[in-house]
Description:
Helices cover 31% and strands 16% of the residues.
Amino acid sequence: MVLYECHYQTPIGELSLVATDQALVGAWFLGQVHFQMGLKEVPLQGFNPILHQAKAWLDTYFNGEMQTIPIEIQPQGTLFQKSVWKALLAIPYGETVTYGQIAGQLNCKSAQAVGGAIGRNPISLFIPCHRVLAADGQLRGYAGGLDKKAWLLNHETILILKE
């Protein structure tokens, strides 16, 4: 399986996008925690149709339009991580949930375990981990940095409580 990588400049930093010929497997902010975690080979620099579609989706997202993701996404992780990431995909644009709410949906007794899986989300933005808040409504944890999480939530017109 050949991996391709390209970079995409967002208003809050550069993303590394990685895809196979079938699916997007990664979208990481450069320098974030767990950068390119799970990749088993070094991606080739270049484009393929999946990466072109991913960039087009990001253009619409950053222009304030929300569309369904037009490409297959295949995050690599454990079964538990994948179940958490699937739950994230159900969070509507412009809405938030808490770590505890996701834990409850998954019959998991640990919101911290959910937070750990969310922190390892390999497909930032496409799998909207930025829409998850602490039980008190505060920002907690974001592999790309809390400043990026706050920006993304404000971009989606979600009001953030300030400490």
